[in-house]
Amino acid sequence: MPRSQSTPSSRLSRESARLVALSLALHSSGSRVEDRYWENEFATVLTKLMRNKNDAAIDAALDHMSKLHPGGYEVLIEQAETLSESCVLVHESQRYDVLLLVAPLVAWTRYSIPATTIPAASLKVLGDQLKAQILSKHAKVALMPHLASLDQMPRTFCETWDWMQKLGTITLGTGTDTPKLNVETEAFNMLADTRYLVAAVAVPEGETMFHWQDEPGELGDARKQCLANWTEQTQSTFNGLLAGCGFEVLVPDAYYVSNREADRRVRPLSVKAAVSWLGSALNVEANQLRAVVAGCGEERIDEYRIGFTQKNQTEVIYGCLWPLYGPEDEQDRPEHETPLETTEEIAALLKECGVTDIRRLPGILPPEFCEDCGAPYFPNPSGEMVHAELPENAETAPTHFH
Question: Do both 108 and 68 map to the same domain?
Answer without folding.
Answer: no
